[in-house]
Amino acid sequence: MGRFDGRVAVVTGGARGIGFGCAQRFADEGAKVAVIDLDESAAAAAAARLGEGHLGIGCDVSVAVSVDAAIERVLGDLGGIHILVNNAGITRDNLLFKMTEEDWDLVMGVHLKGAFLMTKAAQKHFVAQKYGKIVNLSSVSALGNRGQANYAAAKMGVQGFTRTLGIELGPYGINANAIAPGFIATEMTDATAARLGVPVDEFRARNAERNPVRRVGFPEDIAATAAFLCSDEASYITGQTLYVDGGAKLVS
Ligand code: NAI
Questions:
Q1: Which residues lie closer than 8 Å to 133 by C-beta, 6 or more apart?
Q2: CB 119 within 8 A of CB 61
Q3: 207: Cβ below 6 Å to ligand 1?
Q4: What band does 76 get if pLDDT is binned at 50, 70 and 90?
Q5: pTM of the shown model
Q6: Active-site residue 151, yes or no?
Q7: Is the pLDDT of residue 139 over 90?
Q8: Ligand 1 within 6 A of 181 CB?
Q9: 89 alpha carbon – ligand 1 mean position (Å)
């Protein structure tokens, strides 16, 4: 018996990194998973790596028609929807005076509008069945981070969005929570290392030193948290943001 037997989980940005880690965990615990990502073939390849019966869908979460079509495919092919993880994300880092309007709009579009569109499309099914679990990816950068005015604003926006979902959707049997990861070893942070001209191993080691547990995080750390928050054991928890950061927030 898995905690998610009979459930359908949708994970955006699920083709790699934290999203794939979450998809893997839900699949391992019995869910049918829809991996949503920009590129249909990458999403399908990730779904195939999860095993039989999962689905990969090409979808840009910042485009309403693309989101609505993706949710319809989930319902048609997997027969329902119970869990939504709004994980898709991008960075366009720069100091404020160099940040372009496009950098701002792109980051807001994926993180905030993407979470809004996906949640809006999913919640009508959650409300009708009086059951749903939503996890949104925030970040420690929500607290402010040099070079990330756009990303920090979006990730703190995710926390306000999540609190409001908790208030509005709680009466319908829906829990909505956010996870704010610290440094997680993925292609996103590897790309930051490349941009800064620092070798990946050195960049990870430096970031490990910045938190009390003295290691970087891995997608599995976030997946375990997402699985708990989407489980029925967590049904009295809603509107919260849980920092999963090795204690980095305590010392920054
Ligand atoms: P990643 O860059 O490895 O993966 C992100 C995935 O999202 C990619 O597969 C990408 O194709 C997909 N994606 C991007 N734009 C999309 C769109 N418009 N529609 C659909 N899919 C889209 O990133 P990572 O590191 O796995 O991050 C996942 C989430 O966790 C993001 O929201 C990120 O901001 C957040 N996060 C990551 C941290 C880290 O240290 N890696 C720390 C805190 C938060």
A1: 82, 83, 84, 174, 175, 176, 229, 230
A2: no
A3: no
A4: very high
A5: 0.98
A6: yes
A7: yes
A8: yes
A9: 4
